[in-house]
Amino acid sequence: MAVEGETAVKIASTFSWQDVSMTVQKGKKKEKQILSNISGSLSSGKVCALMGPSGAGKTSLLNVLAARIRTRGTTEVSGNITLDGQPITGSTLRKRIAYVMQQDILVPTQTVRESLWFSANLRLPKSYSMKDKKELVEKMLVDLGLVKCADTFIGDDMIRGVSGGEKKRTCVGIELIMKPKLIFLDEPTSGLDSYAAHNVILKLE
To answer: Name one Pfam family in it (predicted).
Structure first.
């Protein structure tokens, strides 16, 4: 798990990056170096955290590793990033990668179970039957400790719903439902109390 402050990555395969750099053009002549020749690797089943002060480039590195930032416009990215020896490029390979953002993006009027079910219906291959999807959703609820709140609304400022920790675990479940080989999480414990944060990390492991 790669973590900004706790920006994170859960691995189910071999993932490596070599000489990763990123620069941003600011004005006609001024260039800002965001990342410089960063290399590393993670073996199967490992959880790894990227930690450092604000502005150190943790989220930038996470986004580059997840192929969310590439050379475009004023941004230039270089280096080699591979998953199972294959470069992380192209839509097919990116489907093997999941990304949980720092901000929870959930529908407040859906229940936890409905949120997972919606993701399963939208993202799983057509080869999955309705029964397969239902079993996967129920297993995810158990694995992430969400059974007791499965039929509770996500909620927001206007609708009473689940806790912050339960929302975060639901976000994780929405991504895990597609069975990725690699999952990135940007500050997965941000805004949570120590108990909820500990719970989220335990479930990720």
So the answer is: ABC_tran
CB atoms near residue 197 (< 10 Å): 18
Number of other residues whose CB lies within 10 A of the CB of residue 93: 17
How far apart are alpha carbons 57 and 107 in whole angstroms? 30
Could you give the maximum distance between any two Cα atoms of the chain, in Å?
Answer: 59
Give the pLDDT confidence of 103-146 residue by residue, as tens digits.
888 999 999 999 999 999 998 988 999 999 999 999 999 988 89
CA trace torsion 166, 115, 177, 102 (10° rounding): -50
Better-predicted residue by pLDDT, 175 or 89: 175
Cα separation, 116 vs 127, in Å, equals: 18
Q: What angle do CA 25, 5, 149 make, to 5 degrees?
A: 120
Query: Which of the four pLDDT bands, split at 50, 70 and 90, describes residue 71?
Result: confident
Partners of 137 in the β-ladder: none
CA pair distance 204, 47, nearest whole angstrom = 8
For residue 61, give every residue at least 6 positions away whose Cβ sits within 8 Å of its Cβ, in sequence order, or none. Answer: 2, 20, 22, 35, 38, 50
181 contact partners, CB below 8 Å, separation of at least 6: 11, 12, 13, 83, 84, 96, 97
